[in-house]
Write a structure and sequence with these properties.
With 218 residues, the chain is of the alpha+beta class. It contains eight helices and four strands, in the order βαβαββαααααα.
Length: 218
């Protein structure tokens, strides 16, 4: 049996995405919390594990991996390769990968660009163009979900888990997607997933931290 450890920061959406995959695969993993605000990710012990000092970081015996999407797909391939969370069929997997890249390079990237100046640089408002770019990306997700329950088809996949970590964070910041019927229904569907409440706690903490710094609501 392997010894699986996840270095985790609960308010981080990518870190929560990796933990959601662990919960949905029902893996026995030790979760080690690193407080990035306190600089715990810069301690020598962690830098030896991950010189990029990012979370999430996964340690599986002598194997170390970081970047949430890489961790998500590795976990399925390594521990439950027959799981529909990351289908082996090349065409189905291709769609899952596309959705993962969409989250990384569009949806999460736009959310990050909007909130990091508030979190780290003392900004007290989010420019309208960045709000609009988030809503545009959510509109794309709404299109993906047309006629299907999950982002990549009829089954929940790692793409949904990563998207859930991002979308829940947006919702807690104050993004209103109530008019995006498919996203709204999908988000409600996600409530039945293992780890949902745990993810919500982290998203709420992040959302509260951002909202406390804003002069006006999102």
């Amino acid at each position: 049996m392997s010894s699986l450890v996840l270095y985790h920061f609960p308010i981080s959406p990518p870190s929560r995405a990796a933990l959601l995959v662990i919960r949905n695969l029902e893996l026995d993993a030790e979760v080690k919390i690193l407080n990035l605000f306190a600089g715990e990710h810069m301690q020598e012990e962690f830098l030896k594990i991950n010189p990029q000092h990012t979370v999430p970081t996964l340690v599986d015996d002598d194997y170390v991996l970081w970047e949430s999407k890489a961790i998500a797909t590795y976990l399925v391939d390594q521990f439950k390769p027959d799981s529909p969370l990351y289908p082996s069929d090349p065409r189905k997997r291709g769609i899952v990968n596309q959705r993962l890249y969409f989250d990384a390079t569009v949806l999460f990237a736009r959310a990050y660009a909007a909130v990091m100046p508030v979190m780290r640089q003392g900004a007290t408002n989010i420019p309208q163009e960045r709000k609009d770019s988030i809503l545009e990306a959510l509109g794309t997700l709404n299109t993906y979900l047309e006629g299907q329950d999950w982002a990549a088809g009829d089954d929940c996949t790692v793409a949904d888990l990563c998207l859930l970590a991002t979308v829940s964070t947006m919702e807690k910041i104050g993004v209103d997607f109530s008019e995006l019927a498919n996203v709204k229904a999908w988000y409600e569907r996600c409530q039945s997933l293992p780890g949902y409440e745990e993810n919500e706690e982290g998203a709420t903490a992040f959302g509260n931290a951002i909202k406390s710094k804003l002069e006006e609501p999102f």
